[in-house]
Amino acid sequence: MKERIVIAFVGNPNVGKTALINAISGAQLKVGNWPGVTVEKKEAFFTHRGVEFRLVDLPGIYSLSPYTLEERISQEFLLEERPDAVVNVLDSTNLERNLYLTTQLADLEIPTVVVLNMWDEFQSKGYQLDLKMLERVLGVPCVPTAATKGKGVDEVLDAVLEVVEKSRVPRKVRFKRIIEEELSKIEKRLKEAGCPYPIRWSAVKLLEGDGFFSEKLFSKIKLDVSFVEEAVERIEAHYGDDVETVLAEQRYGYINGLLKEVFKRPIQHKMELTDIIDKVLLNRVLGLPVFFVMVYLMFKVTFDGSAPFIDWMDGFINGFLGKWISYLLYQAHLPGWLRSLVVGGIFQGVGLVLSFIPLMLILYIFMALLEESGYMARAAFLMDRVMHAVGLHGKSFIPLVIGFGCNVPAILATRTLENERDRKLTALLVPFMSCGARLPIYALFTGIFFVRHRAEVVFLMYLLGMLVSLIVGLVLRRTVFSGEAPPFIMELPPYRLPTLKMIWNSAWFRTKAFIRKAGTIITLAMVILWLFLNIPFGAPVEKSLLGRFSRGISFVFVPAGFGHDWRTVAALIPGTAAKEIVVGALGQLYGGASSSYSSEEINPGSFREDLKEQVVSFFGAFKEAFRNIFMSWKSSVFSGEEEELGEVAKSIAHSFTPLQAFCYMVFCLLWMPCISTLGIIYQEFGWSMVGMSLAITTIVPWVVSSLIYNVGRLLGY
Ligand SMILES: Nc1nc2c(ncn2[C@@H]2O[C@H](COP(=O)(O)OP(=O)(O)OP(=O)(O)O)[C@@H](O)[C@H]2O)c(=O)[nH]1
Ligand SMILES: [Mg+2]
What we know:
This protein has 717 residues and is mainly alpha-helical.
């Protein structure tokens, strides 16, 4: 037996391949209830019965043709790396369509296990199936599983060990005689020419006219293809249809026959829950309004629910930790500059960023709900008509929605779009989607200037981002990326009730990434920022290196509403690395000298009293969050009480008018994607797209903010 077994997980989109890998290995690869979650090859490792397994998660595909990037990635991997085994994951409730890929995989002659996933749904629908018979016909073990519930998972690996040991490959589909005769002639020629790929597979692919494969083959063996062309002509003359269609029909014929043998459908058809829910959610009139109301409610709960916790975190980090650390540093007689760096530089900045952890966590919980329930695909379906206005189709909406979480996976998600032009256009629009990292910026400013309408203003930001992306999309469609949107059919998965564990895992995974970022890149940025603000040492900040530079260029931003204060400009500069840094930088720039605990005479009081107070106020935050969310119709009464602002906030409150603050938020929303997003644009499309993205995201924010600022002023704000 081999020491190390490479298994490729292959199957249609949204059948639970990734969920199965996670269940087997305990990995936390991204799972979601819409087709096209996994777009790159991903891996996990696991040891079972002393054998090491490398589990390769391939993107979901309907067939092994060369039309989409995902199909090409999968074909390339299966042919060139020849995994030891294939786990072909099927959605048992949709066997007819899923088995099509199985019939193609068979030609590759790789030991295979067929997994009948979603077995729980299969059973609850009352379906029945003759497993033994299915195994006999397919020629390989078939294992029923429910990946999300961990059922049948161990059996999969045992079956893999068995098929690898015995080299059990699936039985191939036999086509009608005429085709088989042509195939055998092609096979013979291929064998003579020393074809390095499975012969049957290669012959079928040549016959189908798969350009991607033929090019691969001809780069390895020089072969005269004219005999294939003759075969194609003979078959097409006989059937009066193109070969690809003829082969597909015969495969489906085989599948239908197979299912008749093994499958028992329940007689009565009850109306399914998914259909009932969709009657409302996909309603032509109600659909879109319901969508927007849901998104609005999501923000309302996110903001109202997290606000007390953010206040608590802020108090804990700055009022408690900061105070005591600066006291300790003072007691340790550390030099003044070092204390200034730690307290004024790192603590003020990183602390402010970290105080938004509760906000991120709640937002990510909602994102996970949206993704896991199946509503994401519906959103794309609903937006199809709107997207057509800019010459894109609804499928482009999925990357845009993913962009609300983070722009980086959103750019990757454009891979599900077949057309390269659509892909590029969508990728250019993604940076206008307000990602989670921008949320702390809104939270900071709305907490100061728009306390009564926090959720509404933030909702407006998201809408504005979408509106701007539609307009920019329209312009680009008319100029650089002209062309029609191809018709599109969105596959709508059934609604699934996500488990609490899945939601928590997904949300916590993303929140952890946020915390990690705060501990690394943001801390580093804060140190660098502090340096540039303190060179030459001892000079007032406006005379520092960064101060002078920012003052020099701030006139550019005067029309956009915030050039009056160089610090706003200074915060944008390090913010190019990551958007959260803007908040950290503002903390440092506006906190600076005004901070009470950085002064020399500290009277810390009692540590225990302080700690007790933190604990009490933490539980108080729960009560307040509950009150905020569930009695939010009364919110105007509560938030009428003047909230007490922290030092940084007070100082910000003095330097902006609400209109200026709004414009600054708009600018931050639309302005330049972060380094990681630019990196992924480069990886996927190359430099010219990076350049284009940069150009668009510098011009557009300036124009939009200026427009809002000047119109706002005319209106008397
Ligand atoms: N009820 C049920 N749901 C499942 C099962 N396996 C997966 N799911 C759900 O099905 C959806 C799709 O799962 P994924 O693992 O993302 O599917 P995938 O095959 O990796 O999809 P792509 O990456 O898009 O190709 C998710 O909502 C899962 O929670 C199962 O056995 N039973
Ligand atoms: Mg997947």
